[in-house]
Amino acid sequence: MVASDNEEMDFAEPQVKGKRKKKDNKAESAKKHLKEKDAEMEKLQPTSNGDNNTESCFPPTFSVSDIKNKQRRHFMFMKLKQQKKKEKSDLKKKRKREREALGDKAPPKPIPKTIENQRVYDETVVDPEDEEVALDEGTDEFSSYFNRLTNPKILITTSDRPRGRTVRFCEQLATVIPDSHVYYRRGLALKKIIPQCVARDFTYLIVVNEDRKVPNGLVLCHLPNGPTAHFKVSNVRLRKEMKRRGKDPSEHLPEVILNNFTTRLGHSIGRMFASLFPHDPNFIGRQVATFHNQRDYIFFRFHRYIFKNEKRVGLQELGPRFTLKLRSLQKGTFDSKFGEYEWVHKRHEMDSCRRKFHL
Amino acid sequence: MAEKSRWCSVWIGSETGILKGVNVAKKQAFNFSDFSTLTREQEVSAMCWGDDLESEVLVGCVNGTVKTFSVEKGKFTEFRDCSGGEGPFRGLAVHNSSLITCVESGVLKVWKEGCPDTVEVNVGRDVYKMRQSTSEGHKVAIGGKENDLKIWDLQRPEEPVFKAKNVANDWLDLRVPVWIRDLQFLPESDKVVTCTAYHQVRLYDPSLPQRRPVLETSFEEYPLTALSLTSDANSVVVGNTQGQVAVIDLRQGRLLRCLKGFAGSVRALQCHRSLPLVASCGLDRFLRIHNLEDKHLLHKVYLKSRLNCLLLTSRENIQEQEEKVQESQEEVKDDDIWAAMPTVTDEVSTKRKIKKTETLSTVTKDKSSLTKKKRKSVT
Predict the structure, then answer these.
(1) Who has the most CB within 10 Å: A19, A26, B78, B171?
(2) Which residue of A has its CA nearest to B17?
(3) How far is B222 from chain A (nearest CA, A)?
């Protein structure tokens, strides 16, 4: 037994020694690398002096990814990262010291760059005093709603054979949007449903598309001849999944908030959402539906608010919450084959710049 | 207004009824319509040049009126009520100072100036496009939904000169549907290129006994809405409802290149007569000018309404207008300077010449000394 232990010990020891050796090897190799670097730099310097006017000298092209050994490479990379982190924190401390030293005379803090700050200038942003856009919007498909000639009436349906989540989502949407009716889609073609809806004075048709028991798309079609928007739906939260939610929404008409729809396309979509809800909200109900556009994603939230005093408001989230992303806007009612598209999302052309947004 | 309209190289009609002129060199767009009188009924559905010199633009509106816009004066000069059948204008043309109009319901009318009589021809239902032949002004081609290509000679309006036959049944032995969305005559011949809503591009030759298309190709899977022949008539640029624009070779029927950058349906395309440029406008409210050879987007102008029709001048100097103006201004300045300088006569001139040479030499010496000094400071 003892002998075996000894043997084991014998086996164990070289391994430990080996690991230490490896570490030493790493440190040694690292040092060797550094020495090599320095040597290369020294070699290059005398030549650089002479070639000042005629040639530009290139720094030695040594990168961490050239090391073939994974452990050594990882070690060198960690070292590089630590070095960079140290440089960054030193710079920060230096700036902080300078700022304190200056005291009141210090320049104001620079505004941090965000993607919204750095957004590429979009020439289609609507100027509020633009005559031509006002003319266009005064005579377009939504003008009958904005001139108070028609009241919204919405038909909500799904793709064929919906599953539990989608059905519940449609029911909750119907409670949130006033004067909306949910109908079961019995495999009917949309092109046949649309003339029937027009005949019964519906103004909107919403089709919630389902994939693998989860709603993932939304087609919003303005009737009688209005534009059709196709959205991608994500992050759907039904009422029972909401934390700290209030009671179910009442029958009062909600207010509508549309945030950040600045471009011409954004304007059209914003108007589309606005004409889903009736005109005069019941402020007694204190309910508000928000469509917030940020970076081309539209976030829908439904809240009940209460003013505690003049400056503080309490918010209670009710109702479903979901995110939309516009995929296409088609002129005319739903006709994906022969319809003319006003805007189509082309991923490879439009998503190449991270700071360019379309809504 | 007159000056602005003279420099405009592209004329565009929009859905709101506004006629826009765009100066491509300066990237400026001007509206030439009165906003107060505009309604959706004045939506521009067809446009054409009033004459060969391109001094007048004829604008056809949905309610049946044809307005004449003078490029020289910069305003609308004439309003004519050319209402015939139902539907918007699908084609406008001018031949020997008479106006040819075609409406969607198929009523083709020739309006003579001053004369209330019109020659009326019924060319079939659901017409989507009517175009005039470039070589013979009295021939027009018509195409539409389930209305195959027909070429009419207006001197013999009883029957079409050429009536196309539908392609053979497809592999399921079903009749191939017909829906011509745009067509154009090839220059100096009777051949016609058409593009359909079933994503086909077809070439017909009336001089052959074959009434079926000579060449047929297809592009992508969406309806082709606009078509334009390139300046050398060997290829054709087509655009579809998704904003995909391609250049297709007519000799072999293959795709040459695609032009990128469109976000919405392309409503109108026109290639320049001699330069390798193509102008396009569509529902995404932008006018784009691409170079046909290297696919680059040369100009992109935002025009705030959805655009329906487009007319491109055949002037050569679309992109170089600004430079010419600047050069002329500089020349004018130089001339003034030379005129202001005093003239020098002979006797005085010798002395002045000596003096001049002396001054010149001193100047050169100074210059050399300066340069030497500069060199010293560098080293």
Answers:
(1) A26
(2) A136
(3) 7
ipTM over 0.90: no
Q: Is residue A319 in a domain? A: yes
Pairing of strands A180-182, A154-158: parallel
The answer to whether residue A305 is domain-embedded is yes
CATH number of the domain where residue A236 is located:
3.40.50.10480
Option in A131, A136, A343 nearest B264 (CB): A343
Note the pTM of the prediction, 2 decimals.
0.79
Kindly determine whether residue A139 and residue B39, on different chains, have CB atoms separated by under 8 Å. Answer: yes
Q: B38 at the A interface (CB within 8 A)?
A: yes
B295-310: per-residue pLDDT in tens? 999 999 999 999 999 9
| H or E element that contains B195 | strand B192-196
For chain A, the helix, strand and coil percentages under 3-state DSSP, each to the nearest 5? 40, 25, 35
- Range A151-190 burial, b when 16+ CB lie within 10 A, else e: ebbbbbbbbeebeeebbbbbebbbbbbbbbebeebeeeeb
Q: Which two tokens stand for residue A251?
A: 């029958």
Among left, alpha and beta (phi > 0; psi -120 to 50; other), residue A189 is: beta
CA separation for the pair B226, B219 (Å, rounded)? 13
What residue has token string 């010419």? B324
Cβ pair A135:B38 closer than 8 A: yes
Chain A residues in contact with B245 by the CB 8 A cut-off are none
What are the backbone dihedrals phi and psi of residue B119, each rounded to the nearest 5 degrees, phi first?
-90, 120
B39 shares contact with chain A (CB less than 8 Å):
yes
- How are beta strands B56-61 and B65-70 bridged, if at all? antiparallel
By residue range, what is the domain housing residue A169?
Answer: 131-350
Q: Which of B130, B147, B306 is nearest to A340 (CA)?
A: B306
* B263 touches A: beta carbon within 8 Å: yes
> Following DSSP, what letter does each residue of B232-248 receive, concatenated?
TSSEEEEEETTS-EEEE
pLDDT tens string, chain A, 359 residues long: the values are: 454 444 445 444 445 444 455 555 555 665 666 566 555 555 555 544 444 455 566 677 888 889 999 999 999 999 999 999 999 999 999 989 988 888 887 788 889 999 999 999 999 999 988 888 998 988 889 999 999 999 999 999 999 999 999 999 999 999 999 999 999 999 999 999 999 999 999 999 999 999 999 999 999 999 888 899 999 999 999 999 998 888 899 999 999 999 999 999 999 999 999 999 999 999 999 999 999 999 999 999 999 999 999 899 999 999 899 999 999 999 999 998 999 999 999 999 998 889 999 98
**Chain B residues close to A296, C-beta within 8 Å:** none
Using a CB-CB cut-off of 8 Å, the residues of chain A touching B35 are: 131-132, 135
* Domain membership flag for residue A285: yes
Q: Number of structural domains, chain A?
A: 1
Inter-chain contact B283–A136, Cβ cutoff 8 Å?
Answer: no
The nearest CA of chain A is from the CA of B339 a distance in Å of 47
| Cα–Cα distance for residue pair B73/A309, rounded to 1 Å | 64
- Contacts with A339 from chain B: Cβ below 8 Å: 241
What is the least distance, in Å, from the CA of B64 to any CA of chain A?
Answer: 19
Q: A341 and B265: CB-CB below 8 Å?
A: yes
Residue B300 pairs in a beta bridge with: B288
Q: Do B261 and A350 touch (CB under 8 A)?
A: no
User: Could you identify the residue written with the tokens 């600045």?
Assistant: A262
How far off is chain B from A135, nearest CA to CA, in Å?
Answer: 8
In this structure, is residue A122 part of a structural domain?
no
Nearest neighbour of A344 by CB, restricted to B225, B242, B304: B242
A278-312 in b/e form (b: 16+ CB < 10 A) is beebeeeebbbbbbebeebbbebbbbbeeeeeeee
Q: Are strands A313-331 and A297-307 parallel, antiparallel or unpaired?
A: antiparallel
**Min CA distance, B267 vs chain A (Å)?**
9
Q: Which two tokens stand for residue A110?
A: 């620079």
